[in-house]
Amino acid sequence: QVQLVESGGGLVQAGGSLRLSCAVSGRPFGTYPMGWFRQAPEKEREFVAAISRSGGLTKYADSVKGRFTISRESAKNTMYLQMNSLKPEDTAVYYCAASERPYSPRMVAEYEFDYWGQGTQVTVSS
């Protein structure tokens, strides 16, 4: 069984930065493509970013491209989401996820990810 635990959320002013972490345990870290999703109040969960097993391939939602960076560190079994130039519309619960499927640049749907963390709240004030 795979466990994912997010951390690093919090309250930040618009224009500020946060770094989210997702610690992975249970099976070898390099087994899975991984991703970040978010869910704002009264909205559906949406794709944010994804990264291949090696970390060499990444994909971003248009809304975060150029501001967010996804990465992974095998030595620490951890995935990260560096969020810069945060906007109030980035306010959401952020979830990390892992997939049993091969990485694909079209991997943006929830059903393509098999394991999920509990989420961490990010609030951006204006």
Brief account:
It contains no helices and eleven strands.
What does this structure look like?
The protein has 126 residues and is mainly beta. 0% of the residues lie in helices and 47% in strands. The protein has no helices and 11 strands. Strands 2, 4, 5, 6, 9, 10 and 11 form a 7-stranded mixed beta sheet that branches. It is globular, with a radius of gyration of 13 Å. The termini are far apart. The model has no long low-confidence stretch (mean pLDDT 95).
Annotate the secondary structure layout.
Layout: E1 3-7, E2 10-13, E3 18-25, E4 34-39, E5 46-51, E6 58-60, E7 68-73, E8 78-83, E9 92-98, E10 115-116, E11 120-125
Parallel strand pairs: 2-11
Antiparallel strand pairs: 1-3, 3-8, 4-5, 4-9, 5-6, 7-8, 9-10, 9-11
